[in-house]
Amino acid sequence: MMWVMANTPDDSSSLPPLEADVAPEAESASTPPAAPRPPRWPQVVRWTLLGVFIAFTLGLAGVAGYVSMHATPAGPTFGWPLKITGRTNILIMGLDRTVSDQNPNVEYPVSRTDTLIAASFDPATHHVYLLSIPRDTRTAIPGHGFDKINAAHAYAGAPLTTRTVENLLGVPFPYYIELHVRGLVHLIDAVGGVTVRIPTDLNYDDNWDGLHIHLKRGHRRLGGAEAMEFSRFRHDPLGDIGRIQRQQEVLDALLVELRQPRIALRADRVLTVLRQDTTTNLDQTQLVALGVFGARLPQGGLVRETLPGRFGGYDGYWLPDPAKDRALVIKFFYGMDAAAFSGTTIEVVNASGSRDIATDALARLNALGLRVVRVATAADASEAVLIVHRGDPAVAHVVAGIIGVRRIVRTPAQGGPDLSVVLGRNPEAATPDPPAHR
């Protein structure tokens, strides 16, 4: 494979951009005038107040330290002023209570993810896509074999959880947000509670975990503790899937509260929650940009799904359905059809010297249904390269993104695979500029 790289011109250009959407023809002069629109000032006022509120609570004015920060990855998806310029994928982790919370002598993170949501903010369609991953999903956790996906955080925190989800879905997540177990309780209390519909009485007691749920049916206004109980209840015929549905209902109710202008009056309380209970690698300006984008979503702009699968196994696993998962993920995160991937062939040459890099790449390619026709090893290479022989440029961009390739070259060929990828020692964490939404 290294001969392919040697014969590739140094000035090889990247893939051609997708054709721009054609603007509709100008309306005829004879077209009757449109009916007058209702005034938009109520929406403008609401968005403005929410933007001011978010900016205040996240310290945009220069007050640092409201959220616990880690190194922020480079990425092309944020711009000024407070804009999202491309698809932005974020992994949201709601953490369960940890052993270290109860035992101060435990000095390593042991939290499992009680809630795991893969989110994609898409400015091309003005949508936010939320994919809930059941906590009992059976998957391969790098270095630990097959287990429930919520164990990844207990093994090695957010980095391993992110890597596990990327391998499961075939989607890169350069950003993450961790909300600690008490954070949801405090956040709901900070906004003044949420209103949900409880279809039937919920009763459950767990003395070991200190969980006691006793909620009556009906439309109810719940404080933080009660909302947490409602979202954690899983002792009905649907089990964890029913719990996810209740979590989504609480999330919807919380978003309703956050979109109310009166929320600005509770800024100080929300500020405290963000400071104490949230960990993220997004910086303050990026968080504000996400908040403004969410506040301006149109009707139906928030799309939610749960990872398809079924219950099975001896330990209550949620077993993914690869075909359904693939179709949903490709539609949600790439705006494409799964057939474009299943019809693409690819060879993988591991020149990184690392088995882990190759294992991750193959897992992500398989998750999207690409046909891997050859796997080989080669001499050491410092740079990952994707070589495009033929096929859909949008598919090539997706492949580059999920395996961390920055350099894409074209080398037309009549036979062999559609794509060839050479894995280098240091794959980039950030994705290439995404193609236009299709």
What does it look like?
The protein is of the alpha/beta class and about 450 residues long. It has two domains: about 40-330, Aminopeptidase (3-Layer(aba) Sandwich), CATH 3.40.630.190; about 335-425, Alpha-Beta Plaits. The chain has 13 helices and 22 strands. The strands form seven sheets. A seven-stranded mixed beta sheet has the order 1-14-9-4-5-6-15, sandwiched between helices. A hairpin with a 4-residue loop joins strand 16 and strand 17. Helix 4 packs across helix 12 and helix 6 packs antiparallel against helix 7 (about 240-260). The radius of gyration is 24 Å and the shape is globular. The relative contact order is 0.16.
Descriptive keywords:
438 residues, Aminopeptidase, Alpha-Beta Plaits, 2 domains, five-stranded mixed beta sheet, disordered N terminus
The side-by-side strand order for the widest beta sheet comes to 1-14-9-4-5-6-15
Radius of gyration: 24 Å
Structural class: alpha/beta
Secondary structure: helix percent: 25-40%
The overall strand count is: 22
Number of helical runs?
13
The low-confidence runs, each spanning 5 or more residues with pLDDT under 50, are: 1-31, 51-74, 98-109, 429-438
N-to-C CA distance: 32 Å
* CATH domain class name of the largest domain: Alpha Beta
**The biggest beta sheet, please?**
7 strands, mixed
